[in-house]
Amino acid sequence: MDRKPRVLLTNDDGPPGIDSPYVFGFAKHLALDLGWDVKVVIPSSQKSWIGKAYQIKEITKGRYYYPRDPDGHGDVSHVSRPLKRDEGEFAEWILLDGTPATCANIGLHNIYKDGIDLVVSGPNLGRNSSAAFALSSGTIGAALSSSLSRCRAVAISYGTVQHPVPKELFQPAHVLGGKIIQALLRDWGVDKDGIRNNEVDLYNVNIPMIDNLLEQENGGPEKQMPIVWTSIWRNAYGSLFKPHTLEQSNAEVPAGGPDARITASRSSPGDGVPQNSVPDISETKTPTKTPSPPGPSDHKHGYEFHSHAPELVFKFAPDMSGLIGRRVKAPPGSDAWAIERGWVSVTPLRATFAEPSLDWDDKSTAIVDECANNPQLSDIIPGNLDPGVRFFKL
Asked: Which residue intervals make up region (Disordered) (predicted)?
């Protein structure tokens, strides 16, 4: 690409704030340091763990946002207005009352129609590595949405290792993230099954927020943070919710999973501290009300009703014990394996569901009989049957 790329930047953490500390600095780096044409369309509030969801019944409304130094806080307006550059405003952003995927799609097809070369989603507060996190990630969801619109897309996440993350790590992470995206743009990668010109649909990048980032500019080769190609670690989670009483239901629920704030002090990759999780369930308060045993059933209207049944109130409180920490043994070459070593992971992805490798020969032995006995298939000559056609046998 000879000219500077035109980039749509979105995220799932929302506008700059305590739960969205990276988007302002990253947008400034892309626009002011790299000179890219950056357009920002982000959710008006945090939308973590929402995947590639869209809001289809609600009307999506938007506002204009004018971030300014030093922290990205700024004015909100219902109409576009000139920038107040003397007050530190450098760009006009758009906030939408929608999901990250909604922001990406509206940005591509309604606001900046036919003018975006690349969608960057992030930087996310916390890792988005492994299947359990990636399939839930609004950050990756926005990138998936963009790739399904045949636009190149990169999801980028900053893995929390120490809390609070030292601010001196922010800019080195932005610089490294920009270099990785530049390298991808120079050689995007071929995928014969890609939905856009037989190229890779999207990439997922995870950068651990560790002190090695400080060596990226001034350190020698031995100090450089390794960047490795990875695959997604296939893992699983258990309970994501816990019972909650009505008295507690108004309590603040922090973002869960890889986006959450944690209460650890300093740690290092793999030391057993949940790097991007809400407090462990064992550390949170248990409901003060003990559920009563079920009472008499009422079948009057065709359903059971227990007069003393526990209240159906639950709080998002995922158990991350098997997903992050020293005891997790992710396979070599996976994204989680790289992050646990303090390495950057770059994972090429397809915007589709993976399909298992089955023994199709055993499942297709009845093709000839099916063709002979099914009137709808009688015109198919088994010898000329496309080898890709496989019939389902009841």
From this structure: 249-304
What is the residue-wise DSSP string for 94-107? EEESS-HHHHHHHI
- Measured CA to CA, the distance from residue 274 to residue 197 in angstroms comes to 40
* Three-class SS state of 347: strand
Helices (H), the chain: 23-28, 100-106, 131-134, 138-148, 170-186, 335-340, 360-363, 367-373
Sketch out the chain's domains with CATH numbers: 1-355 (3.40.1210.10), 359-394 (no CATH)
3-class state of residue 145 by DSSP? helix
User: Could you tell me the sign of the dihedral formed by the alpha carbons of 230, 108, 122, 30, in that order?
Assistant: positive
- Provide the sign of the torsion angle of the four alpha carbons 249, 243, 282, 324, taken in this order: negative
Per the prediction, the chain carries an average pLDDT of: 83
Number of Cβ within a 10 Å radius of residue 287: 17
Distance, CA of 238 to CA of 255 (rounded, Å):
18
Single pTM value for the model: 0.81
Tens digits of per-residue pLDDT, 294-345? 555 555 555 565 566 678 889 998 887 777 766 678 899 999 999 999 999 9
- DSSP calls for 239-284: --EEE--GGGTTS--PPPGGG------S--TTSSS-TT-PPPGGGS
